[in-house]
Amino acid sequence: MLQSPARRDHTAHAMSTTPYPIGIPGRPWGEEERALWRARQTRKRSYAEDVLSVIERLRPRFDVVRYGQLDYPPECYPLYAIRSRDWSETRPVALVTGGVHGYETSGVHGALQFAERHMADYAGRLDVLVAPCISPWAYERIHRWNPHAVDPNRSFRDGSPAEESAALLRLIAPLRERVLVHIDLHETTDSDEHEFRPALAARDGKPFEPGHIPDGFYLVDDTENPQPAFQQAIIEAVAEVTHIAPADADGKIIGSPVVAPGVIRYPLRELGLCAGITRARYVTTTEVYPDSPRATPEQCNAAQVAAVRAALDFALANA
Fold it and tell me: What is the pLDDT averaged over residues 186-207?
């Protein structure tokens, strides 16, 4: 989720009066507080079983590129991307990224499902590169930060403090001018409001201001390069799978004005967001709401896949 300062769910008012259990209100964390926070994080699922096993299954059909390794003792995590086997160096590139925030599950599994079920459909038309799980340590702990309490999705810039972000930037550097379309897969969850935003406020020594979690799917367009027809094509495709988030009473989603049904805009490069790492004409960030009573995990994954396919199809039709 792309955090914004004006959101609230049904528990937010009650929780806003309870100090976060780490740190002193009003004082940014130091290394002691970060270590306390890190000690609270426990491994809840397996990157090897959930992600690497699927990538291994895809090796006979696609090229698998190891683009880095995260060393977080006692663990290390190899980083892999899946690439079209008929890579040409002349065709435009489609980039699909997932798991920048490891807890956003459908971003990871949606990227893998797209690769497994539909990536071959674009052979000979696009060079497709899928980086399905950019933050495996956070994936295993169902968190948005890396072990240094750094958010990778504010860190896609030169001299990045997040190795997750730096590794992807190195992978993409030779391709930046060739990327035609980039879709970055995310979720907005209820835990954003009762855990992750309070933790962010505590880490930075700021007061927590409750916000609103939208019920449904939405997209984040680029303020500096808006592509309304592209965003609309994705919304229409996803609407066949799951519901689209409505605007709140102020005409906003997560504090940002709704510019079209289910669409807001952020300055992607300025904020150091993953979706701003290339010069692609067509760029978007998806936001699935997995906690909705109207959506199953299967629907969430399917919504991500539908978004990817619609993005690539639109880019090809309008290149």
Answer: 96
**Residue pLDDT, tens place only, 16-35:** 457 899 999 999 999 999 99
Range of the domain at 252: 12-317
**Does residue 7 belong to any structural domain of this protein?**
no
In a domain, 2, yes or no: no
Q: Contact 286/165 with Cβ under 8 angstroms?
A: no
**191's tokens:** 């835990």
End-to-end CA distance of the chain: 29
CATH code of residue 197: 3.40.630.10
